[in-house]
C-alpha cells in the first residue's frame, strides 16, 4: 500500500498497550528475545567499545536486525560498504516472518534494551513506531548525506513525527503486478504474452478470478491458478485507498465494504479450488514454489527475489510479469537507528548509505526491491532491469508505471494485526473446508481479541 500514516493520537486500537503484551505475541517475544541479539554473536568478539578482537581487531561491528529477504547482503552492499570503510564490519540477524520479528522488536523498544545498531520496520508497523517509540530512535533527517528530496514524499512522511523528526529512512516500496508461469498458462490454453495476459483482467479483480476458472479447467495436474488466499486478498486490498482505518483514525475493517468484498472474492476463489491451501512465507508454501504447484501470484518487486530464492534452477526464464488488475502497493520497509545502540554514529552513516538512491537502484537491479527514491526511476539500473526468473521482461518499466498509479492509502498502527487475521486466521480456513461465513467470523473474533476490543 502506498499509504499516509495516521497520527497516533487519533487512534483508539489496542488501548495504547504494546502488542508484545498480548498473549498471542508473548511466545514470539520470548523465543526471539535472544534472536534479535544473535547478530552480535557473529561479530568476532566485540568488547564494550564495539571494536572486535582476534581476526577483526580494530574493526567496529554494526549489527542489523532484519526480517524476510531485504537483500542488502545478497546484492553485495555490505561487502561494498566494508571495502569503502575498512574499519567497519557488518553483521545481520534475519527473522523470516515479520509477525515474529516485530513483537520482539516492539518489546525491546518499549524497554529500550537489547536493540541492535540498526532495526528494520515494515510499513504496516511504522505508524505504531512513529506514534509510540520515536523517542527511542535517532532523527535520520540529520544523518550525513540524507536529503528529503531523495524519497517519495509519502514514503518520507510515513516515518516522520508530528514535530518533524524522521526516525526511519525508506528502503523499498511494493508496486503491484502479477507474476505468472508462461509454460503453465500455455498448457491451460491461456495467452502467454504479458500485454494480452494483462488484458484478460484489466481493471477488475473479479476478472482475475474468472481467468483462474479458465485456467483450472485445463490446469496441469496438481496445480492451482494462484499460490495462496493470503496473496490474493493482500493484492486486492493493496489497491484500495481505505481499508482497515478511515481518515479519522477509526478502525473500520468490519464495516468497510471494500474489505468484505475482498474477503468474499478470495473465499469464492478458494471454494472453487483456484488457490493453493498454503500460508505464505511458510515452509510448505516455499515448497509449492520449488515444485511448480501454481501458475500466478500477486507480485510486488520484492517477490521476485523470493521466487528466485525458492525456485529450482530450471524455473529461470519461465516466469513473466503482467500489469495487475488495479495498481496497489504491498510492502516496503524502513531502517531505523536506536539511540541505545553501541555504534549510533556509524549506524546512521550505514543507514544513510544503504538507502541512498545509488544503493536502492543496485538493490533493485540484483534483488528486485523497488526503490522508494524517485530519482532512481531514470537510472539504467532501473530502466534496463531484468530478472533471471522473468527473462527479458522489462520489470523496471512495468513497476515504475505501476508505482505512478498507486493510490495514497490510510494506514494505522495495527494494520499488520488486521491483515494477518484476515489471511492466516480467515480466508485460509476456506481452503480447509470452512464456509466463508465461518472464516469471516473466526477472523474478526481473532482480530478484535488482538486489538483488545
Can you offer a commentary on this structure?
This protein is α/β, with parallel strands linked by helices and 453 residues long. It has two domains: 9-173 and 332-383, Periplasmic binding protein-like II (D-Maltodextrin-Binding Protein, domain 2), CATH 3.40.190.10; 175-330 and 390-450, D-Maltodextrin-Binding Protein, domain 2 (3-Layer(aba) Sandwich). It has 18 helices and twelve strands. The strands form three sheets. Strands 3-2-4-10-5-11 form a six-stranded mixed beta sheet, sandwiched between helices. α1 (23-32) crosses α3 (98-111), α9 (229-238) runs antiparallel to α10 (257-271) and α17 packs antiparallel against α18. The longest helix has 15 residues, at 257-271. It is globular. The chain starts with a strand and ends with a helix.
The low-confidence parts are: 1-55
Oligomeric form of this entry? single chain
Our estimate of the beta-strand percent is 5-15%
Reported for the largest beta sheet, the result is: 6 strands, mixed
* DSSP helical segment count: 18
Q: CATH superfamily name of the largest domain?
A: Periplasmic binding protein-like II
Structural class: alpha/beta
Adjacency order of strands in the biggest sheet: 3-2-4-10-5-11
Order of helices and strands: EHEHEHEHHEEHHHEHHHEHEEHHEHHEHH
Mean pLDDT, all residues: 87
Shape: globular
CATH class of the largest domain: Alpha Beta
Helix content bin: 25-40%
CATH hierarchy: architecture of the largest domain: 3-Layer(aba) Sandwich
Straight-line N-to-C gap:
25 Å
Q: CATH fold name of the largest domain, please?
A: D-Maltodextrin-Binding Protein, domain 2
Tally of distinct domains:
2
Radius of gyration from CA coordinates: 21 Å
Count of extended strands: 12
